[in-house]
Amino acid sequence: MTEKGIKELHDLLINKKLNVSDLVKESINKSKELNKKCSAFVTIVDDPVLSEVTDSLLSGIPYGIKDNYSTKGILSTGSSMTLKDYIPFFSATAVENLEKNGAIAVNKTALDEFGMGGTGTTCHTGSVKNPWDLKRMCGGSSAGSAAAVAAGIYPYALGSDTGDSIRKPAAYTGIVGYKPTYGMISRYGLFPFASSLDTCGVLTRSVEDAAIVVDAMKGQDNKDLTSWDSKGISLYKNLKKDIKGKKLFYIKEIVDKDNYPEASKELIEHLDNFNKTIDLLKKEGFIIEAISIGKNILNAIPSVYVCLSCAEATSNMSNLTGISFGPRGKGSNSEEMMKDHRTKGFSPLIKRRFVIGSYILQKENQEKYFVNAQRVRRLIVDLIKEQFKKYDALILPVGSGPAPYLENALDKVPDNETKVLENHLQIGNFGGFPSITIPNGFINNMPVGINMTANCYEDEKLLNIAYKLESLMNYKGQIAKLGDDK
Amino acid sequence: MGKYKAVIGLEMHCELKSNAKVFSKAKNSYEDLPNIYVSPVDMAFPGTLPSLNIECIRKGLMASIILNCKQPEYMVFDRKNYYYPDLPKGYQITQMHNPVGVNGSITIEMDGYDKKVDILDIHLEEDSARLNHYSNYSLIDYNRAGVPLLELVTAPCLDNADEAVAFLEAMRKIYQYCDISDADTKKGQIRCDVNVSIMEEGAKELGTKVEIKNVNSFANVREAINYEIKRQSELKDAGRYDEVEQETRRFDEESGTTKRMRSKVDAIDYKYFIEPNIPKFKIKKSWLDEIKKSIPMLPRERKELYIKEYGLSNYDATIIVKEKSYAEYFEECIKLGMNPKTVANYLIVNIIAYLNKWAIELKDFYLTPNLLKQIIDALDKGTISSKQAKEIFNKSLEEKNEPKNYITSDSAQISDESLLEEIINKVLENNSKQIEDYHNGRTNLFDYFVGQVMKETRGKANPSLVKEILNTKLNK
C-alpha cells in the first residue's frame, strides 16, 4: 500500500478500504527492512501518534523527515555526532504545517552531515545505499529520503536543498525532487547549512504528490524573515493548467557532446537520453532552444558555490560548541571544551569545509573570495533571469549519468570536463529559483533524471511543465526493487 | 599631567528599552532571577532564525537623528564571528557596513564653554549572555542574550575626563528623555570602552592609543582616563614612551588603575559578513520624518526654555533637567498654572531632598503636581506662610492626606491689618522697657518685637505685614 501515491491512498482511507494504523505499521516495518540494507534512517519512530482521516489529502498518511529538521520530542541529529543525542523541544514550521494536515512522521532520514556533501556517505550512522543497486550511492545530501521514497516506504519524504541536495538524489533514485522558490517554505527549524541558499523541499514519486506536499508545507512564517506570502499559489489545484506554446531553453555548453571528448559511455547515453526527452517535448508543442551562456561563467559555478556555502556554513555552525546543548567537551577552560566538542563531533569532510569557509572570510581574503563570489553569483543569476524574460523554464540533464559507485565517493569538485554538468543545479540556489527533477530513463538499469528550473515565484508554471513531461514518459510512481547486496 | 595634550575617544554601549529582544520574541527585562526571559533563538538551538524588532530599529534611528548622523538608505545587519561561551550563536548580529547612523555630532555644555563632540557611527546590535564566574566554575544567564544594544562611537575629540563624563551624562539624559533607554548604570545598562592617548602640545601626530574595555560607571570612566593619562605621561616624562603599547586594558576598580589584557597585535579577525537571515529593507523617508517628529524636547532645549520663559536661574534649571522625571513634574506644575519659581524652589529644596532621603522615585511620590498645587497656590496667595507650607508638605506626606485638609481657616495666615495692629499695640504696651532700649540704640530688638507678635498669633501673623506695621510704630 505504501507504494501508492497520496491521492490514491487518501481515497482508500476516506472510503475505509484502508485504515491508518495498518498503513503506518506497514511503513514502519518496511522502514526497518530497508534500514538493514540501505542505512537510510537515523530514527524509526515505533509508535507515532496516529491522526484522523480528514479532508486533507495528507491526513493519516506516513512520511519521512530528513534528520536536519527539528522535530519536537524526536531525536534530530543532522546525521552528526555533535547532536547525536539531541531531542528538540520544538518542531520546524514546515513539520508543524504537515502535522496540522494530519501527516504522520514515521522516521528521520539520514543525510550527509548537516547537508554538507553530495554522496550520502558522511552520515554518522553510515553510508546510505541506493535501493536500485546497493553498491551505488543515492547522492546527497537527502540520501535517506531518496532511498526511502524510491523503495516505496511511503509516498514522500522531506528534503533540504542547498546546492542540489534534493534534486540530485532524486535523479539517482528515479524519483521526483522539488525545491520550491526560496522562502516559500519557512526554514525555521531546519538546521542551517548556508542560509542564503538553503531551501526546504520534498522527494516524491510523482509531480502531483510534490504539489500536494509543498502546498501543505509552505506559507509565510513570522519566525523566518525570508519567507513570503504564497497564499496566491495553489500547486495541486493548478497542476493541469494548459502549457501550450511554453518555451524552454537549455544551456548549449552543458549539453553539447562535443564538449566532452573524454566522455564515458554512460555520459553519452545520458546526453542522448536528454535529447530524446527534448524531442518528446517538442513533439508535444514545446518550443525549445539552445542558449549559450559562456564557458567561463559556467566554470565559475562550482567555485562560487564552495566559497559562499562554506563561508556561511562556518558561521552557521558556530553554535555547535557543546556549551548550551550537545555533549559537553572536556577541558580545563571553555575554549578547550569547545575545541574538544568540535574536534570529536565533526567528520573530516565538514572540518575541511570549515577551514575553507574561515579562510574565505578572513579579512585579507574576503574581498578576493567571498565578495567576488557574491558578485559572480549575481552575474550568473542576472544572466539566467535575462533568459527567463523569453523562456518559461531552463531544462537540463541531472549529473553525468546514473548514481556513482559508493567506492568512488569523493568530496571534491572534480576538476574535469564534467564539473559544470555535475554542479549546474546550484544555479537554482543562487537565484532562489524553483527547480524540479523528474526521472527520464534508465542507463545500465539505473534511473537517470532531468531537471527544470523556472523564475522565482513561478512554481505553478514549473510544475505544469513537469507534470506534462511526466505524463509523456513511464516513470511516474516507479519503485526500486531491493536488490541483494552482491 | 597637564604637560601633554590628551586625546580621548569613547565607545558607549547602551541597552535599549523595548518589549522584546531585538532578534527574538523573548522579553527584554532586567531581572535578578536568571534564565527566565529566554527563547530558543536566544540560546541558538539548531534551526532557530532571527526575527526583527522594529521598535528597536526605530529607537536606533531616533538616536541617529538626534546625533545629526546620516541614516542609511537600507537597513542591513552583519555577523561578527567569534567563539565565547556568552555568545550562543558563535556570532553576534550587529551593524558593520551600514549602521543606523554615521558622521554626526552633538554639542554639549561644559563649564563656561560649548564642546562639539563628533560621532563616527552609531549601530544596533544584540547583547551577549551574562557570565557569572565562581572559583572553579561559571554560570551562564541567557536573560541578557539578545537584548538590544546601541553602540555609539565618538571621534577621538575629547580633551579630558570632564568632557568625556559630560558627554556620557548628556547622552544618558537624551536616551532617558526619548525613552530610548533607562540608561541605568547600576543595572549595567551602560558600558563604555575608552581610548586614551597623549601627545606633545602642538604636535601633529597622535600618540599611541590605549583602549580600556568595559568600564561600567561614569565615575570609573573618569578615574580610568585620569589614571591612564598619568601613566602615559609619567612614562613619557621618564623617556620610556615606547613602553606605551597599542593594547587593550581593563579598569581595576579596587586599585583605581588600568591593567593590560591583550596587545592589539593579537586582535581577533571577526570575519564580518552580511546576515543572510534578515533581508535588507529600505528605510522610507516618511518613516524618518515621522520618527523625527516624535522626538521630545531634549534636556538642553528645556533648560533654555526654563531660563528664558520661566525665569529660573541657570542653577535651578540645570538641576531640574538632570532627570527626565523632574522636568516632567515641573512642566506638569506649570501647566496647572503654578508659579514656576515657587515650584522650582519646592522641587529642588523639598521634593528632591525628600526623594533622596527615602530613596524613592518621583513617580512614586505622593504629592502629584495636582496635590502640590494646593500648597503652592495657598503659599502664593499668602493664605499660608512658607513655614506653614513646609509643615503641611510634611504632614501631607506623612499621613498621605491631601494638603488642602491641613489648610484650615484656623491655620490661615493673619493678614488683616487692623487685627495685627491691635495685637502689636498690646505687645508694645507690655514691653515699654524694651522700647526705651530700642530707642537708645539697641535696634536689634526689632526682631524681638516681631517674635513677640508671632508668639501672640502662634506663628500665623503675616511676617512682612508685621514688620511693616512695627516699623511705622517704632520709628514715627
Describe it:
The complex is a heterodimer of chains A (486) and B (476). The two termini of chain A are 28 Å apart. Chain A has a domain at 6-242 and 434-472: Alpha-Beta Complex (Amidase signature (AS) enzymes), CATH 3.90.1300.10. In chain A, a hairpin with a 2-residue loop joins strand 12 (435-443) and strand 13 (446-453). Chain A is globular and about 70 Å long. In chain A, helix 9 packs across helix 11 (348-361). In chain A, the strands form three sheets. Chain A has an eight-stranded mixed beta sheet with strand order 6-8-7-12-13-11-9-10, with helices on both faces. In chain A, strands 1-3-2 form a three-stranded mixed beta sheet, sandwiched between helices. A two-stranded antiparallel ribbon of chain A has the order 4-5. Chain A has helices spanning 6-14, 20-38, 93-100, 143-150, 167-172, 207-217, 252-255, 265-283, 295-316, 334-345, 348-361, 363-388, 419-423, 426-431, 459-472, and strands spanning 41-44, 62-66, 104-109, 129-130, 133-137, 156-161, 176-179, 199-204, 247-251, 287-291, 393-397, 435-443, 446-453. Chain A is α+β, with helices and mostly antiparallel strands. Chain B has 14 helices and 15 strands. Chain B has 476 residues and is α+β, with helices and mostly antiparallel strands. Chain B has three domains: 4-287, no CATH class; 297-405, no CATH class; 417-474, Arc Repressor Mutant, subunit A (Orthogonal Bundle). Helix content of chain B is 38%, strand content 20%. The termini of chain B are far apart. Chain B has helices at residues 54-66, 161-177, 218-237, 285-293, 299-310, 314-321, 324-335, 340-358, 369-381, 386-399, 417-429, 432-439, 446-456, 463-474, and strands at residues 4-15, 74-75, 78-81, 91-94, 101-110, 113-126, 130-133, 138-141, 148-154, 190-200, 210-215, 247-252, 257-263, 273-274, 281-282. The mean pLDDT of chain B is 92. In chain B, strands 5-6-9-1-10-11-12-13 form an eight-stranded mixed beta sheet.
